[in-house]
């Protein structure tokens, strides 16, 4: 979802939320899981008992177990766009494989267009004109038929409308290892503003959440049936997709997957340009502004055309269509990096294909090779939204702003499109991890605006600001339970800051990167939980991190290190120094201390966070310095940590 583009954006959010709020530097620590169960040890270092027991499906070290399973859903989708009625008609054949050990007698499907019908739960939760509101649009899914096909015979199934999820009773039980086939048809009016996930702008359409998608059935929670409200995102099964999109002949279509019938929908010139672009690291214009105005963009101008796309091992399929799309393409290692945009956006979007290429290159080289044949950035009314191989972005004020959003939405192809976590429950597991990897990509593209460490420092400042204002909440909070004004700095920024601290200050870059890559590799095209992430980071990184997961994800303690006292004594040219480091809040972090001496030299001392484990408020160290005296001691002088009160971080010799 939309990336918080800058510290200035965050400041606006803080101002909107905190008007009239009292500023303070302390908060009441969140109740721990130990105190909830009445246990005696409620310290930050107590064993974390939120982990489920390892089993044959998920191991104790964070790997998929020997009997890990997940369902599979293969779709043949057909869509017809009626631009006069602003409506979509769709049909599909779904093959659903039951790989679980359970016999299923019903399935749940996501019917998410129902968020836009009158009196939906969405309309009761979000103001109509808000970002995730329905804008009082009278839409909704209309199911024309929902059949199960058994031995060539179609049987109409009983449906129970539950709003944005629908229960479907099977014609016969679906045993383990068996596959059910469904034939479904539906239609709906396309909202202008579809909760900032899809919609239309004049002749342009962006279509997502547009077909009945089977809910995830997993070993953790069985059926995952959280409603779609707009703010929480998605949790989906993997499969192979075929898509046929019928649109007016003048339209250009971008979609998840690879275009299968270029010879039917593109001109010979466009096909030739596309072949050139597939071998070029520089953008090649496939459809130019002149092609659009001169009529050379389309093979014909009347009637309809059907565009066909195919995608392998994806969890969703979305598309966009406009008669006004310019189309640029570059490539990296044979992967197409594409940009579709209207002429009015060209002032910045003419760089978008190259921005897409660099994003794919960065994330592939640093974390995991991109497994798909293309990525498409599409311009339109959606301010920032991700789908497999498709990233939706709006016009931007400059190239830096555009890249922040482009690389964020493309980064989502790793989290959660490849690593398929449950976004509707654990929002940080895709948004936060993605925001973290974005700092590397942004620094690579535009180092003049700050290297990765400088960008991480800007995010830390945002977290400190929320804590000083006491508007912070635990990261492990369901997205639909968070005030929209808190969503960005809780799930995106705070998670990114935590991972940065874990990498730079606690585990070290080598151990962190090894563990983080291992997590991605282990859970590619699977459904990891937070526990799987935590266990992988610990087992590969080589540290137990119960305390860190507790303070950073499950509670919201504040951080305030200090120098409580310093005593010095001279003996035969040796200065003996006793320092009492203080921890004035519940949260713990490593200690970074810098001593400045009378001769102008400095010496740094770094102590791991575990030094607070026996006394979380006081840590005493003694030092001897020969031939020089200490003039100043500073805690966290480079501001690498989170600290809500820095007035107590320094000591000066009298």
Low-confidence stretches: 5-16, 18-38
Total number of helices? 16
Instruction: Name the strands of the widest sheet in spatial order.
Output: 5-4-8-2-1-15-19-17
What structural class do you assign from the helix and strand content?
alpha+beta
Q: What gross morphology would you assign?
A: globular
> Portion of residues in helices?
25-40%
Query: What integer value in Å does the Rg equal?
Result: 27 Å
Major β-sheet annotation? 8 strands, mixed
Mean pLDDT: 93
The count of strands amounts to 32
Question: Your description of this structure?
Answer:
The chain has 654 residues and is an alpha+beta fold. Among the domains are: 7-60 and 436-554, no CATH class; 561-652, Immunoglobulin-like (Sandwich). Helices cover 27% and strands 30% of the residues. Strands 5-4-8-2-1-15-19-17 form an eight-stranded mixed β-sheet. Strand 28 (591-597) and strand 29 (602-607) form a beta hairpin. Helix 8 (352-366) crosses helix 9 (399-411), helix 8 (352-366) packs across helix 11 and helix 13 (484-507) crosses helix 14 (509-523). The protein starts with 6 loop residues before the first helix and ends with a strand.
